[in-house]
Design a protein that fits this description.
This protein has 312 residues and is α/β, with parallel strands linked by helices. It has two domains: 203 residues, 3-Layer(aba) Sandwich (D-Maltodextrin-Binding Protein, domain 2); 94 residues, D-Maltodextrin-Binding Protein, domain 2 (3-Layer(aba) Sandwich). 41% of the residues lie in helices and 19% in strands. It has a five-stranded mixed β-sheet with strand order 2-1-3-12-4. The protein has a five-stranded mixed β-sheet with strand order 8-7-9-6-10, with helices on both faces. Strands 11-5-13 form a three-stranded antiparallel β-sheet. α7 links the parallel β7 and β8. The protein is globular. About 4% of the residues have low confidence.
């Protein structure tokens, strides 16, 4: 009840602007989101009336088959979608029509939210001790697994000696407890949920860059070219919501709880996402280069080529 009251209080704070907009015709925008903290800016902009202030009536769908969100967006099922950065880069390298219009969450070493965990009573003390071990995460052959392998090699280990087991984040702690795996790469909020039975060995994303874009909002170049003013208003909304979210973790948790169903105690204990307030090649290039080095994409390319550029 307290959380619901808090959400009502937040929305009441923007009631006056919404009333003023009732006489204004809003532009409908169909979007895909993901019920995670990293997608928070979209939810904040919706709940706080920021989209409406910018003349947008944003419909947020949360697809069950999130793995198909890139192809679904290209196919016209949404106008703009939230996407994990690697599938967007992979689509671009396959000459599929995608362009990034706004940044979402960044992976920032100053606010780390990636974890390599081992059981509390594990004899593993250093990264080198992972040699020959079985590790868990999901999905395999993605940014997490390649980051772990690069991190292991960086600290004197040998990634060729490890084995991977495809285990969803929520099940990794139990798999460690049962001895099925020796350690796991996990992100929030699952790392916080596993805190009582595990300990932190390190942060594999340090092998990629101190800061890099982990997710973004994208569309097709054709749609963006046909709707430049809508793109501009979406960008302004996401930027305002991102700045607000970074400065208001307690208040934003109320909104994230509504969409993600992560409980309030976990949200209070976990490392919250940090959202980029500007889309620059500098925060996009590290993941492109890392994916190219690890054959996740067929060669690197300039980050600016994947970023939407508004007409002059």
């Amino acid at each position: 009840m307290k959380r619901r009251s808090a959400l009502l209080g937040l929305t009441a704070a923007v009631a006056a602007p919404r009333i003023a907009l009732q006489a204004q015709t809003l532009t409908t925008l169909r979007t895909f989101g993901l019920a995670v903290d990293q997608c928070g800016a979209m939810f904040y902009a919706k709940e706080l009336g920021i989209f409406e202030k910018n003349g947008l009536d944003v419909e947020i769908s949360l697809p069950q088959d999130y793995g198909a969100v890139v192809t679904a967006t290209i196919g016209g099922s949404a106008d703009i979608a939230y996407g994990i950065i690697v599938p967007i880069e992979q689509a671009y390298k396959k000459d599929l029509p995608v362009t990034i219009v706004a940044p979402a969450a960044v992976n920032d070493a100053r606010h780390p939210n990636n974890y390599f965990l081992v059981p509390k009573d594990s004899p593993i003390k250093t990264v080198r001790d992972l040699n020959g071990k079985t590790l868990g995460t999901s999905p395999l052959k993605n940014l997490g697994t390649y980051a772990v392998e690069a991190w292991l090699n960086m600290h004197g280990g040998d990634a060729t000696t490890i084995k991977w087991a495809d285990i969803p984040f929520p099940l990794c702690a139990e798999a460690m407890a049962r001895g099925r795996i020796d350690g796991a790469f996990i992100v929030e909020p699952f790392a916080t949920a596993a805190r009582s039975t595990t300990r932190l060995l390190g942060r594999p994303y340090e092998a990629i860059a101190p800061i890099f874009l982990g997710a973004a909002y994208f569309t097709t170049p054709a749609w963006a070219a046909a709707h430049p003013d809508v793109v501009r208003r979406f960008q302004a909304s996401i930027k305002e919501a991102s700045v607000w979210g970074n400065a208001n973790h307690d208040k934003s948790a109320v909104i994230i709880e509504k969409y993600s169903k992560v409980d309030a105690a976990t949200l209070a204990a976990m490392t919250r996402s940090i959202y980029a307030d500007a889309l620059t090649p500098e925060i996009l290039q590290p993941s492109i280069d890392f994916c190219a080095r690890n054959k996740m994409i067929d060669g690197s390319f300039p980050a600016k080529d994947l970023i939407y550029h508004a007409p002059a």
